[in-house]
User: Which sequence fits this backbone?
């Protein structure tokens, strides 16, 4: 694994999300097959209600960590950060119904499989004070997002 400088690890530089949908704060560690990110559960975002964020948002935290993994490796190859799609979630387990706003969470992802057609599978974990979640995410990142979207419309 490679530790990176905090300047190089701003999640907003690695994830194609912005504004209220940008949920990760920073990437702490990235390796060939893994990434660890950190976030503070936000009380000003679209998911916050009465000082809490629903536990199912952990899946989005995981998906954005996968996006950061992809974005980091794209930048290492001299490519642009690209959009991808969360196709499905399997084996989602959680110890919490919701997260408390202000809590610090760690998100870890590990790539298990990468196909040549852009499909991949990641084992993911979210952990924090009293919170433990895990899931397996199936994702897809087409080579040409514009052509893919035109084809599907």
Assistant:
């Amino acid at each position: 694994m490679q530790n990176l400088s905090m300047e190089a690890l701003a999640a907003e530089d690695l994830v194609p999300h912005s504004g209220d949908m940008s949920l990760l704060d920073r990437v702490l560690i990235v390796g060939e097959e893994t990434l660890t990110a950190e976030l503070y559960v936000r009380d000003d975002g679209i998911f916050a209600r009465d000082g809490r964020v629903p536990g199912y948002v952990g899946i989005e935290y995981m998906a954005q960590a996968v996006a950061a993994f992809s974005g980091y490796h794209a930048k290492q190859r001299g490519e642009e950060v690209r959009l991808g799609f969360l196709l499905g979630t399997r084996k989602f387990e959680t110890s919490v119904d919701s997260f408390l706003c202000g809590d610090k969470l760690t998100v870890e992802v590990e790539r298990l499989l990468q196909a040549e057609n852009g499909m991949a599978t990641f084992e993911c974990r979210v952990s924090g004070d009293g919170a433990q979640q895990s899931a397996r995410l199936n994702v897809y990142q087409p080579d040409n997002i514009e052509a893919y979207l035109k084809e599907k419309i």
